[in-house]
Design a protein that fits this description.
It is a single chain. The protein has a domain of about 200 residues: Nucleotidyltransferase, domain 5, CATH 3.30.420. It is built from 13 helices and 16 strands. Helix 5 runs antiparallel to helix 6 and helix 5 packs across helix 9. It starts with a strand and ends in a 6-residue tail after the last strand. It binds zinc ion (ZN). Zinc ion binds next to loops.
Length: about 450
C-alpha cells in the first residue's frame, strides 16, 4: 500500500522592505513570466494542441526553438517553469471541461444509455477524445488506438448513435472551454536551480547572470522543489510559497463522530457543548474595529505612503496572530475530541459583489472561510473524515424531537419537548443527526491534493 500524503502550502515572508532596485528586478521576471504563460495559453490552449499536452515534450521542444526566450532574454530556469505552469493550467482546464461534460451528459435526455457509455469512454481516452474533436475520422469513429482500446471503442460506438454523440461532444467543448489568459504579473514560479537558501534568507536568480537578489526571511526554514514568489511592490515585500507533502497521520484512537457548529463568538462548539476558541469573538472584534479605524484614517491621509506601509505591516502581524490562535484551537479540538468523522454545515457559496462595503461583515466572512479551510486541511492530514450537511434551518430545529423551536440570545428552546440548550450546541447536534440521516451535501475524505 502506498503511504497517503496531503499537500500543504507553507508561506515565508520577507523580513525587510525590499529596495526599489531589487523589486524592479523581480517584477521584470514576473512580467516575462506572464508573457510566456500567455504565449503558451494562446498557442496550446485550443483543441488543435490536445495531442501535444501529454506528456508535453513536444511543447517543450517547440518552446525551445520558437525564439521567445532569446527575445525576452529570460533565464531558462524561469522560462521553462512558466511554460510548464501554463501547460498545467491548460490541462486543468480540460479536466474541468470534461467534468462539466460528464455531469451534463448524465442529465441530457436526448442521449441513450449507450450514447452515454460511449461518451464517457471518449472523455476518458485522450487519443479518442482528440480524434473526435479534430475530425480525423475516416470511418466515422476514432481509429488507430492501441488494440484493446480500439476494440472497446468499436463496440461502444457500434451500440450508440455516433453522429449524435460526436456532435454533442463538440458543442459541449465549445460551451465549456474558455480562453485562458493572465493579466497578473505579480509573481513567478522558481525551480530549484533558480534559488538558494542561505544567510537567513533566499537568493533568487535574476535576468542578469550572477546578479542574484537576496531576500532576508522571517524564518530560517529551507524548502526544496518548486517555489512560488509572490510580490507586493507597494508594500515592498514578498511571500515565498512552497508546497510541502505531508504524510497523512492515522490515529487508531480517533473513533468518535463529532458534530460541530462554527460561530463568530465561540469559534467551534461540539454537540456535547465543548467549546474551542472562546476568545475568538473578542480577538476578532478587536481586529475588525482596528481595521475600520484605520480605513477612516487612511481616507483622510490618502497621500501618506509611509503611513500606509506601517499600516500594512501592522495588519499583517495582527492577522497572523489571529490565525495562529485559530490553528492552535483547531489542533486542540482534534486532540481532545479524537474524531473519526466531523459533521458540519456546508458553507453557502460566497455571494458575488457588494461585500466590501461593510468591513466588519467582509472580515467575518473571510475569517470564516479561513477557519473552514484550515479545519479541512487538518482533517485531511490526520485522516479524519468530514461530512458536510445541508444547513437550512439547522439553528432553529430541535435536535431532540425535530420540532421547530426558538432562539433567544444564545439559548435555544423547544416548546414542543421542553429541550433547552446553547444555540450552537443544538446546531452541532443537528449537524451530527443530519449526517446520520443522509442529508449530506458532500463527503470529503482524506484524499490528497488540492
Ligand atoms: Zn424538541
Amino acid at each position: 500500500m502506498t503511504q497517503e500524503s496531503a499537500v500543504r502550502t507553507v508561506r515565508q515572508y520577507s523580513a525587510k522592505p525590499i529596495s526599489g532596485e531589487d523589486m524592479e528586478k523581480l517584477l521584470e521576471i514576473a512580467g516575462d513570466y506572464r508573457r510566456v504563460k500567455n504565449y503558451v495559453y494562446e498557442r496550446y490552449g485550443g483543441i488543435g494542441s490536445l495531442g501535444k499536452l501529454y506528456p508535453g515534450y513536444t511543447v517543450q521542444n517547440e518552446m525551445t526553438v520558437c525564439g521567445l526566450r532569446a527575445e525576452l532574454g529570460m533565464p531558462s530556469v524561469y522560462y521553462y517553469r512558466a511554460v510548464f505552469d501554463a501547460l498545467g493550467d491548460i490541462k486543468s482546464q480540460w479536466t474541468r471541461t470534461k467534468t462539466a461534460m460528464r455531469k451534463a451528459a448524465a442529465r441530457n435526455e436526448n442521449l441513450t444509455e449507450a450514447d452515454r457509455h460511449y461518451l464517457r469512454f471518449l472523455l476518458k481516452v485522450n487519443n479518442a477524445f482528440e480524434a473526435v474533436l479534430n475530425e480525423k475520422l475516416p470511418e466515422g469513429k476514432p481509429s488507430g488506438l492501441p488494440e484493446a482500446v480500439q476494440a472497446q471503442c468499436d463496440a461502444l460506438a457500434e451500440a450508440s448513435d455516433v453522429r449524435r454523440v460526436h456532435g454533442y461532444l463538440r458543442r459541449q467543448v465549445r460551451k465549456h472551454q474558455v480562453k485562458l489568459s493572465t493579466e497578473r504579473a505579480d509573481g513567478f514560479g522558481v525551480t530549484e536551480r533558480a534559488y538558494r537558501y542561505a544567510d537567513h534568507g533566499i537568493y533568487l536568480a535574476t535576468k542578469r547572470s550572477r546578479q542574484r537578489v537576496f531576500l532576508p526571511l522571517t524564518d530560517s526554514r529551507q524548502y526544496t522543489g518548486q517555489l512560488y514568489v509572490k510580490l507586493f511592490p507597494r508594500e515592498q515585500r514578498a511571500e515565498i510559497m512552497a508546497a510541502v507533502r505531508v504524510r497523512v497521520k492515522n490515529h487508531p484512537d480517533y473513533t468518535n463522530r463529532v458534530g460541530i457548529a462554527l460561530g463568530m463568538k465561540t469559534m467551534l462548539t461540539t454537540q456535547e457543548g465543548h467549546r474551542y476558541g472562546t476568545e475568538f469573538g473578542t480577538l476578532h472584534t478587536e481586529y475588525a474595529e482596528w481595521l475600520r479605524e484605520q480605513s477612516s484614517v487612511y481616507r483622510r491621509n490618502r497621500a501618506d505612503n509611509a503611513g500606509r506601509k506601517k499600516y500594512t505591516a501592522k495588519k499583517h502581524r495582527k492577522e497572523e496572530r489571529l490565525h495562529s490562535y485559530i490553528n492552535q484551537q483547531l489542533n486542540l479540538f482534534l486532540q481532545n475530541e479524537k474524531p473519526e468523522t466531523v459533521c458540519m454545515v456546508k458553507l453557502p457559496p460566497p455571494k458575488a459583489g457588494g461585500v466590501n462595503r461593510k468591513i466588519n461583515y467582509s472580515v467575518s466572512v473571510w475569517q470564516r472561510g479561513y477557519i473552514r479551510k484550515r479545519l479541512l486541511q487538518k482533517c485531511r492530514e490526520q485522516s479524519v473524515e468530514v461530512v458536510e450537511v445541508l444547513g437550512k434551518g439547522i439553528g432553529t430545529e430541535c435536535s431532540r424531537c425535530g420540532a421547530s423551536g426558538s432562539v433567544e440570545g444564545e439559548r435555544f428552546r423547544c416548546a414542543s419537548c421542553g429541550y433547552e440548550a446553547d444555540e450552537k450546541t443544538n446546531a452541532a447536534a443537528n449537524a451530527l443527526k443530519r449526517a446520520g440521516e443522509g442529508q449530506i451535501k458532500i463527503i470529503g475524505t482524506g484524499d490528497s491534493d488540492k
